[in-house]
Design goal:
- It is a single chain.
- The chain has 360 residues and is of the alpha/beta class.
- It has twelve helices and 19 strands.
- Strand 8 (117-119) and strand 9 form a beta hairpin.
- Helix 5 (164-176) crosses helix 11.
- 50% of the residues are buried.
Length: 360
């Protein structure tokens, strides 16, 4: 089969090759013929080394397709079922799962260290990013990672729900718990940031300020529910006008950099909430002095994968989409095929694309 492979961490181009095989099929496993996958900024971060991932590897973790084969003991899905790929499925047995925090389950993360593809010509192991690797025509995953989707949900929509949409909506719904009538600022307006904006709007926020250096993304943010959109150098002015200089009730950092997190902290009112959604590097340190941490009493809440039960989050996203309360089709600004994957990477790096859907 064909797949897009990164041979060495730090390379900025993917090599679309034939002769890749998905491995590991057996009891408790599901083989999926992927039909669509989204390009998330986390894929770029893994390619650059910001996020740890052994190489060579196949990026991609937002995927959807059809089940072609199930292993012994698998009963939740069967061949022919339409599914999305959950890259962080809960084991339902570890301490995090038992205390009601399945999004903190480490079982899925362990899969990232096990190769699930092989190069047929020479037997070289190839990893799948986040244990999945959806920039391929086929993948083999643990059964809980194959989540059935209703027939009315297109594959490209389901793929986005598998990560970016769930992450952004969940940050507003689950982690920050945005209150009606509140003021919100969102720093970083790619696909996840736009989803956070839609979540804040669905929660009833009165003012939602989108902050992004790319003009096209600021324009998009207004279509998705932001009440205004500014470049980074306009944030202080917006803070003064909208909050009389006090700061926003909720500020979402969706970039994954300490400098942006510091800006977000400063834009948050005393007693307000800074929600950190962006995935950053292990050597990028966010610093506060102990007095401001104590005196400002700002809540600093990281949000991993939307901060809640992802299966419930998928159902909620589908329900809101069906009701017309959130726009998921509009998130897909570009569509390419697998051989055009490097064009999609450039669109993501430049900020031209919110989400690119890759047909497989």
């Amino acid at each position: 089969m064909r797949a897009a492979v990164l041979h060495e961490t730090g390379q900025d181009k993917l090599d679309v090759v034939d002769g890749i095989e998905a491995t590991g099929f057996g009891p408790g496993k599901v083989r999926i013929r992927l039909r669509a996958t989204g390009l998330c900024h986390s894929d770029l971060s893994a390619m650059s080394g910001v996020l740890p991932q052994p190489a060579p590897f196949i990026p991609g973790h937002e995927g959807a397709g059809e089940v072609t084969e199930v292993g012994e003991g698998v009963t939740a899905v069967k061949p022919g079922d339409r599914v999305l790929v959950c890259w962080l499925a809960a084991c339902n047995a570890c301490p995090s799962c038992r205390r009601g925090q399945p999004h903190l389950c480490l079982t899925g993360f362990m899969n990232a260290g096990t190769p699930n593809f092989v190069r047929a010509a020479d037997g070289t192991d190839v990893f799948g990013f986040a244990g999945t690797g959806t920039f391929a025509e086929e993948t083999v995953v643990d059964a809980p990672c194959a989540v059935p989707i209703p027939d009315d949900v297109p594959f490209e929509i389901a793929a986005l729900i598998g990560c970016g949409v769930t992450t952004g909506l969940g940050a507003a719904f689950n982690t920050a718990k945005v209150e009606a009538g509140s003021s919100v600022a969102v720093l970083g307006c790619g696909g996840v940031g736009i989803s956070a904006i839609q979540g804040a709007r669905a929660c009833g926020a009165a003012q939602i300020v989108a902050v992004d250096p790319v003009a096209g993304r600021r324009e998009s943010a207004l279509r998705f529910g932001a009440t205004e959109a500014v470049a980074p150098d306009g944030l202080d002015d917006a803070k003064q006008r909208i909050t009389a200089g006090e700061g926003f009730d909720y500020v979402f950092e969706v970039v994954g950099k300490s400098a942006t997190a510091r800006t977000a902290y400063d834009a948050t009112r005393r007693g307000g909430t800074l929600c950190v959604v962006g995935a950053g590097a292990t050597d990028d340190h966010f610093q506060l002095n102990m007095f401001e941490l104590f005196f400002d009493e700002k809540r600093i809440l990281p949000s991993l994968y939307g901060g809640g039960d992802v299966l419930r989050a998928y159902d909620r996203a589908i329900a809101l989409w069906r009701a017309g309360r959130i726009d998921l089709e509009g998130l897909i600004t570009h569509r390419v095929t697998l051989p055009e994957i490097n064009e999609a990477l450039d669109q993501m790096r430049s900020g031209e694309a919110l989400r690119t859907c890759i047909s497989l």
